[in-house]
């Protein structure tokens, strides 16, 4: 925890401004998001082992599927629109918009986290699909975990971390905001994936937990890397002045 406390410190010396950019993982949230990320990673592993090599729904999957079966035309259009956000064009549009917003708010670390955090989350979900080997609607359709759900949840997590940092929220309020954003995004995309028959409900849970596990860890790495670069720049500047 001592190392975590030093990451993204606001009084780090660096460059001409004499301080580093704001941390993307607010210090007030690290104590809670760390265990949550670890628990999420455990859920991903347990579900992956449970459904490895399966090609059909489990008991819970079947019950949830039955509840959403027979969705009418208006709701199907909503599901398709939500699904589009996880497709290449929709996802790229969201990423560009979010990165632009981060830069306009002068949060370069957050912009980096958008790209790196989302990429790591989707990459992890893709790797897990090949490792687990669960399929849906044919042997060529790997399903666990849901990449669409992981993507939108990861993006919501980054946005919520940025908001919590800018608003200076404490541990309880900040963690609540982050988890609420992740829950809303994951539930929306997860519902669309299940309603369209693209994923089993447990695939959706796995994708949601993948984002919860990867994004906080990536944010910590981004802060540590940025702080080290700032320290090195400051040390080089002091040597030149000396």
Keywords:
242 residues, disordered N terminus, PAP2/HPO, membrane
Please specify the SSE layout and strand pairing.
Layout: H1 2-6, H2 27-50, H3 59-68, H4 73-84, H5 88-104, H6 108-132, H7 147-167, H8 171-195, H9 201-241
Protein name: Phosphatase PAP2 family protein
Membrane topology: Multi-pass membrane protein
Main location: membrane
Describe the model:
The protein has 242 residues and is mostly helical. Helix content is 74%, strand content 0%. It contains nine helices and no strands. The chain has helices at residues 2-6, 27-50, 59-68, 73-84, 88-104, 108-132, 147-167, 171-195, 201-241. α2 packs antiparallel against α9 (201-241) and α7 (147-167) packs antiparallel against α8. It starts with a helix and ends with a helix. Residues 1-19 have low confidence and may be disordered.
Compact summary:
This is Phosphatase PAP2 family protein. The protein has helices at 2-6, 27-50, 59-68, 73-84, 88-104, 108-132, 147-167, 171-195, 201-241. It has 242 residues and is mostly helical.
Low-confidence stretches: 1-19
Q: Sheet bearing the most strands, described? A: none
Note the beta-strand portion. under 5%
Helix content: over 70%
Secondary-structure element series: HHHHHHHHH
Structural class comes to: mainly alpha
Q: Specify the overall morphology.
A: elongated
- Please tell me how large the radius of gyration is: 20 Å
**What number is the mean pLDDT?**
87
Total helices: the number is 9
The tally of strands reads: 0
Span between termini: 34 Å
Main location: membrane
Membrane topology: Multi-pass membrane protein
Subcellular location: Cell membrane
Keywords: Cell membrane, Hydrolase, Membrane, Transmembrane, Transmembrane helix
């Amino acid at each position: 925890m001592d190392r975590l406390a030093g990451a993204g410190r606001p009084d780090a010396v660096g460059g001409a401004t004499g301080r580093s950019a704001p941390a993307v993982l607010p210090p007030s949230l690290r104590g809670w998001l760390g265990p949550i990320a670890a628990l999420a990673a455990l859920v991903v592993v347990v579900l992956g082992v449970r459904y490895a090599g399966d090609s059909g729904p489990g008991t819970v999957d079947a019950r949830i599927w039955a509840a959403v079966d027979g969705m009418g035309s208006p709701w199907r259009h909503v599901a398709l629109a939500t699904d589009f956000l996880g497709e290449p064009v929709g996802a790229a549009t969201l990423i560009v918009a979010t990165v632009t917003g981060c830069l306009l708010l002068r949060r370069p670390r957050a912009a980096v986290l958008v790209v790196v955090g989302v990429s790591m989350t989707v990459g992890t979900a893709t790797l897990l699909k090949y490792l687990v080997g669960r399929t849906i609607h044919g042997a060529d359709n790997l399903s666990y975990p849901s990449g669409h759900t992981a993507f939108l949840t990861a993006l919501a997590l980054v946005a919520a971390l940025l908001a919590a940092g800018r608003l200076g929220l404490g541990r309880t309020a900040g963690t609540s905001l982050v988890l609420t954003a992740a829950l809303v995004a994951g539930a929306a995309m997860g519902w669309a994936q299940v309603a369209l028959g693209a994923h089993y409900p447990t695939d959706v849970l796995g994708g949601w937990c993948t984002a919860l596990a990867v994004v906080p860890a990536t944010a910590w790495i981004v802060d540590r890397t940025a702080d080290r670069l700032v320290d090195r720049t400051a040390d080089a500047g002091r040597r030149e002045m000396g």
